[in-house]
Write a structure and sequence with these properties.
311 residues; mainly alpha; 2 strands; 2% strand; binds acetyl coenzyme *A; PaaA_PaaC
Length: 311
Amino acid sequence: KEIDLQQVFDNKIENEVRIEPKDWMPEAYRKTLIRQISQHAHSEIVGMLPEANWITRAPSLNRKKILLAKVQDEAGHGLYLYCAAETLGVSRIQTLNDLHSGKAKYSSIFNYPVLTWADIGMIGWLVDGAAILNQVPLCRTSYGPYARAMVRVCKEESFHQRQGYESLVVLSRGSEEQKAMMQDAMNRWWWPTLMMFGPKDEESSNSELSMKWRIKRFSNDELRQRFVDITVHQAEYLGLTIPDPDLKWNEERGHYDFGEIDWEEFWNVVKGNGKCNKQRLDARRKAHENGAWVRDAATAYQEKRKQRELN
Ligand code: ACO
């Protein structure tokens, strides 16, 4: 009897059985996973750049060690994710070429400048905090290799978020200048962080299928709301003002209401016209070119070993 492959796939999704690389899957499922996982990988790798600029400027040896570890973690996340994308039949070089040519997307957040040490704290607290909220549900995403990669990624992201918050707690107990520096960073990072969750649900073109296939478990707006609800109290503890006059507790909804995001700015950044898009892509391309000799050496070594085995 002929097996209905689509039915087998649908049943697995329905019963929370992970889809694995060699399983049959609809082409559109494969495509959307390649899209999301590769964008995610690029975000991790490009995300190293704004922070790496601050390793030499960290205010103490301890802060420097923490930042170094964090930036290295991001590299590891990118590598797991490129591997997960490869299990879907796309080559790493193709994925990287798409990033370098500007064809592939990566998170809008990494196209903003990092101007002060307080920005590094904000990246940990707000940006990594938002990333965790988005990524914890991905530990249960329907594609096995992606879900498993997310488990370790989330543990490390949690450390990143904690270190960011802790460094801000220190600033919040510091001088007036330090407090002002922190508020200035908050003013610049709040709205771009809310944009990380993606467009509004009704404009999120991929959501319907991604939710059906259980790639996504919560919508962009649901996660954004959860982030605001959690973060308001942490901001209060830090003595920070959230730069949104419309932010208000809504008793009826049991959530905070908040102002409208500047979607024009969001799409502008996504399309490549943010403050640092060019700088980030140039840095990635340069790093790739500078790494050519390592790839050549690895290929030559592999060839040599093959020859040795043949002889
Ligand atoms: N920055 C850049 N592009 C974005 C962003 C963003 N913040 N949010 C959405 N987009 C893009 C989508 O990639 C999509 O474009 P595409 O169809 O050309 O691929 C388009 O805007 C429409 O958005 P959605 O239909 O809502 O896209 P999707 O269902 O993929 O949801 C989301 C977007 C929530 C980011 C999802 O892809 C996701 O959960 N990704 C995994 C997590 C991730 O990538 N995090 C990266 C930042 S965290 C970090 O690295 C520290």
